[in-house]
Prior knowledge:
Keywords: Signal. This protein is mainly alpha-helical.
Amino acid sequence: xxxxxxxxxxxxxxxxxxxxxxxxxxxxxxxxxxxxxxxxxxxxxxxxxxxxxxxxxxxxxxxxxxxxxxxxxxxxxxxxxxxxxxxxxxxxxxxxxxxxxxxxxxxxxxxxxxxxxxxxxxxxxxxxxxxxxxxxxxxxxxxxxxxxxxxxxxxxxxxxxxxxxxxxxxxxxxxxxxxxxxxxxxxxxxxx
Length: 192
């Protein structure tokens, strides 16, 4: 048999458990819990900028990028550093995309891929002297982010990534489209 101290402890544990089970309920009487945003159909301002599915990439080649801007041998050190930084960004993307093609991707590179893609193409565009020559870099950024978004959407649907990753990927792609729209407006305004 149980001693009175043991019996008292067991009763207190059962009482605490019973009380704690009910404490997780919504206070306002809402039995459904919080409303979460669901994934809506995708909007793009640039339907003509097509992306590929990762399953379609058989030759192992990444999406084409515009030719790199030429940097003069006597260019300022900051310009040379930016150029090298841009090259490293492309190398990072190529490595992550190779991992995706091999089927061994995990989400550790998710945030880095989004930020590196954004910064790599901004750097490349910044190396161009004329705003009109920056447009292809911004377009390539949109295409790359569209491809990554499709990939993440597939991973979310199959339960490999959390849904918030799709929202973050889509957010980054939409920001890239907004940046491209602004750049095109500046180019158009300068042409007038």
